[in-house]
Amino acid sequence: MNKPTMELTGNKTNDGESYFDGGLLQYIGWRILGFLVTVFTLGICLPWSYTMIYRWKIEHTVINGKRLKFNGTAIGLFGHWIKWWFFTVITFGIYGFWVFIKLEKWKTKHTTFA
Fold first, then answer.
1. Which of 5, 75, 83, 86 has its CA at a distance of 20 to 30 angstroms from the CA of residue 97?
2. Burial of 77 (0-12, 13-18, 19+ CB in 10 A)
């Protein structure tokens, strides 16, 4: 039985393996930037911070040799964010239990292979 050959691209192999190639310093930088943006806008730009950090995570992820891509936007999330916040307030926090699921569905909808 023949072993499949491995094609090298940079320092990673293109043989169907899965890996994450982001670095710790990049992650810390994006988190600090996201925190500062959120604090200085009093939370209004939290969706922008969230999409920025999630985009970095996704675009440094390779599944079965295929790089992932995130095409969600902060403006797209902002509309949902306002709606979710409104429903959470008028239901005295009960809707907040569903926000996590809604957010995961939104992230998945906007994540594809590059």
1. 75
2. buried
